[in-house]
Amino acid sequence: MEVSRRRFLSIGPVGVLGGSALGFDLTESINVKQRLRIEGATLAHSLCPYCAVGCSIIAYTRKAANGRTELLQIEGDPDSPVNEGTLCPKGATSLQLAVSRRRVPQPLYRAPGAAGWTKVSWEFMLDRLARNIKASRDATFVTQDAEGNVVNRCEGIAFAGGAAFSSEEGYLATKLMRGLGLVHLEQQARV
Amino acid sequence: MVSLAATFGRGAMTNHWRDIRHADLILVNGANPAEAHPVGFRWLMRAKLDRGAKIIHADPRFTRTSAVADTYVRIRTGTDVAYFGGLINHVLSNRLYHDDYVRWATNAGFVVKEGYAFQDGMFNGFDREQGVYNTKLWAYETDQDGHARIDPDHPRSVLNLMAAHYRRYDADTVSRITGIPREQFMQVAGLVGEMGRPDKVMTIVYAVGLTHHTTGVQLIRSGAILQLLLGNMGRPGGGMNAERGHANIQGNTDHAISWDILPGYLRIPAPGQKDIKAYLDESASIKQHPRAVNFFGENYRRYLVSLLKSWYGDAATKDNEFAFDYLPKPAANASWISIFDQALRGKMQGVMLSGMTATSIGPDSNQVLQALSNLKWLCVMDPFNTTSSEFWRAPGMDPAKVQTEVFMLPATHWIEKDGSFTNSGRWAQWKEQVLPPEGEARHDHWILAELFLRVRELYQTQGGRFPDPVLKLTMPYRNPRKPELDEIAQEINGRDLRTGKRLATFVDLNDDGTTAAGDWIYTGHYPEEGNLTKRRDGVQDPGRNDPSGMGFYPNWAWSWPANRRILYNRASADENGRPWDPERPGIAWAGGKWVGDVPDYPPTTGPGPDAPLPFIMTGEGVGRLFSNAVADGPFPEHYEPIESPIANPLHPQQSATPVAFMYDERAGRASRFGTPADYPYVATSYRLTEHEHYVTQNVEHLVQLQPEAFVEVPAGLAREKGIETGDLVRVSSRRGKLEVRAVVTKRLGPLQVDGRQVYQIGIPIHWGFVGINTGQHWLANALTPFVGDASARTPEYKAFLVDIEKI
Ligand code: SF4
Questions:
Q1: Residue ranges of the alpha helices (H) in chain A?
Q2: What would the pLDDT profile of B430-485 be if each residue is shown by its tens digit?
Q3: What tens digit of pLDDT does each residue of B724-769 get?
Q4: Rounded to 5, what percent of chain A is helix, strand, coil?
Q5: Domain residues of chain A, as ranges?
Q6: For chain A, what is the mean pLDDT?
Q7: CB contacts < 8 Å between A and B, how many?
Q8: Is the CB of residue A16 below 6 angstroms from any atom belonging to ligand 1?
Q9: pLDDT attached to residue B749
Q10: CB contact A29 to B (< 8 Å)
Q11: CB contact under 8 A, A122 and B452
Q12: pLDDT digits (tens, 9 = 90+) for B178-210
């Protein structure tokens, strides 16, 4: 996507580096540096992953020679009626959340009583987990309660999460978990 | 959000971020938006700078919000019911409420059924055995049509009962409970008292500082009652504005990752409801006023049947009650603390966590570690290791003794997928996929879909307990193992099954199986013309994109319901449809139609004395000053936290709420509560600007900005204990301890409460034994109590007792 002139002009120093404590104005040189940094980049619209203010962000990426997509920069979206281009320290550093050496590179399995992780395949994990889910569902499923009411619930599995799920993922999680009969369902609204 | 739903009919932030700029007075309670919602805070500052609004910040701590507030009110944590109660009393006893609004838009004149009583800290209808109230006793007197009797002058009118209830909250009592000096309280009351004028408007901004108490629901309801009395609900610059703490809590609550609801705030069915009719009888609100629209109650069945059609497709038919039996019916509360309580009781076998770490979140992290050790299996889906995936080797744990099988599945980040986030102000905003998944990481929803389909295949080949719902659940996606979020968004929106066309409004949903919609409040976000959450007509062109000039920006993204920006906006105009304040209109009746925001009202129905009442979601048609939709009382009452330094000055014999759920006691486990003799100081927990819960322990810049765990200690207490800034201190509760550095500060008090000095200690929550700075292994929630309120079971993170000593 092309960076419009208006949008380009609105790309000022934002986030944690705004202002100058040095006694002279860095704005111009920062602008030049920014321009070089994002020249020819692809622009995409996203949102800050942290709090529920819902600040819009613009993310610039470029396809590197090795075919990998490189995330160059994240900044506040000046068009948003919510944040008008600004971000707080968390949103401004969200690039470091997105691209991190700390990511878990592959599925990890810890057997009962084991002192460490074992690196395993996705197939191993999904197969074993599916069997666990079925076994726990079968073991704790109640079709009728003591009063004879039809209740069709699985009491022994809980699902919690999703504060940074897209809504659509959240909906699917609810649908699938209720489909399994779960009653213990929670996300980060209360806690 | 129980409290807002109980008062107005929907449980969500009523206005939106940008709208706060229209306020004349802003009460901030239980929140520190300057630090926790920094960009949202700009709209409070705009109100202050552009229109001279005053900000009053009531908080245990002087924060950066206090620094720019016009008045900082130091309040003892968890006593906001008394603070708001005093304000309500001031408004009632001086008749400062917005009289026309109160008569027209609240249940002030409704007559409460005989038998209502409040004595010695107890409402009528308490069942000592079960520890619960029979809330059905808190009802109105009704006529033969089931409509409530209305007579404002009746001794049992809501207004009269309320005045009597709140008379006890005089300024001296408020001061005694909260620690706010009397004169300062009176100054605040003076400012608030002016806000009942039609040309003035106040907003209340709050966050989990109100929620995280055993009285949390009533803390918030107190603010909501004050706002109804002042006529500030539904108006631009007014409302009850809950600041949500995570990017998409709102969206995922709307879509019901929550034990007690189904998507769109339909209640989860209860045992004994053998068919849809029995379910509706106990779930849908009943029309209690001839002019009530009772929109939700009247349409409940349409939304439930459309949901069942989405989930069970052709297997949901008229003859089988649209597969109503497939829905699980919980026996008891199944929320956060209950999950770990069940594990402690040995009844929970497996837990799946996604982007949420049980160990750090607590409460009572040490007990949670025990609970996790009792599981057969634990599955963590996350881009990073968490204190839950690593719980078995937490400090003090012996891995050899932990028999839990642990699965760590690398998941993708938000930026590696598209989909929408719904912000605090209910704006559903679409995001694009920016990056491909890193390495072997997979999307959470693909993991869940894959797991579900594998479980289904096991039921197909092996059989098992009641497989029908697992076999019949619809997976109508191009690749069911990898559903696209766009496909799911369309399913949520819903369609007419006869034409196959996506619906433009929930008004078109039916109860006969001819329509399907995954979440009725989102019907209309993705009509035939496309996904409206992608719209981007923002501040680049205010003249074109904000036609009303009120900052609604109707073509920026989409807000539920129906792209309405301010909930209950019918109440922004008087009975005749004229805005209370023409300078700040929400909607207005002009030229035979409503103009301004999308009306929260039948769109073609005009105003007038015979017109439907303004709050369309309640059975009464009005906002509820008195409500029986909460478990702990029809009017809010001040109760002390479960761990408190003093006995309740109002009724010492009933100091804490009688209905808080005491998990350990009920399960026969030893008490984990401390007494003021052993733990003399009040503690409260909170966030810092630079971190968001626990995930930011993986972000280098943020760890550099706030590298180390600490506690904030009031200067006077520090002097008594010989503690200086930088000293290592041990903070302990009955449940656990932290050994971290002290920051000595004047920002925390002390307070004079009930005739004595009370110190409060501040505890930022962000550290744990996983992260860049692994030396910082202390969990703040090791200190917090394993107890929740009666209605929502929200833990009491914000008020508990500790001791402190220098190490
Ligand atoms: S940038 Fe800051 S204020 Fe904005 S959504 Fe992110 S965390 Fe919240």
A1: 5-10, 27-38, 89-92, 95-98, 122-140, 167-180
A2: 999 999 999 999 999 999 999 999 999 999 999 999 999 999 999 999 999 999 99
A3: 999 999 999 999 999 999 999 999 989 999 999 999 999 999 999 9
A4: 30, 25, 40
A5: 42-99, 104-138, 140-190
A6: 87
A7: 493
A8: no
A9: 87
A10: no
A11: no
A12: 999 999 999 999 999 999 999 999 999 998 888
Q: What share of chain B is helix, strand, coil (3-state, %, to 5)?
A: 35, 20, 50
Ligand 1 pocket check for A14: Cβ under 6 Å: no
| B701 compared with A22, residue with greater pLDDT | B701
**Residue B279 predicted with pLDDT over 90:** yes
Pocket of ligand 1 contains residue B37 by CB under 6 Å: yes
Which two structure tokens, joined as six digits, stand for A53? 């203010």
Using CB atoms, pick whichever of A113, A130, A167 lies closest to residue B421.
Answer: A167
Q: What percent of chain B has pLDDT over 70?
A: 100
Rounded average pLDDT over B388-414: 97
Determine the pLDDT at residue A12: 38
Q: Which of residues 494-513 of B touch A (CB under 8 A)?
A: none
Interface of A with B in 117-176 (CB under 8 A): 117, 122, 125-134, 136-141, 143, 145, 147, 149-176
List CB contacts of B779: < 8 A, sequence separation 6 or more.
Answer: B359, B360, B362, B365, B387, B736, B738, B767, B768, B769
Span A42-99: which CATH code? Answer: 2.20.25.90
Phi and psi for B20 in degrees, rounded to 5? -60, -20
Q: Which of B252, B329, B442, B765 to mutate to test the interface with A (most CBs of A within 10 A)?
A: B252
Residues 6+ apart with CB under 8 A from B676: B644, B645, B646, B801
ipTM higher than the 0.90 cut: yes
Cα distance between residue A74 and residue A79, in whole Å: 15
Please identify, by atom number, the ligand 1 atom nearest to the C-alpha of residue A49: 6
What is the reported pTM?
0.95
Looking at B497-603, list the stretches that DSSP marks H as alpha helix, in order from N- to C-terminal side. Answer: 542-545
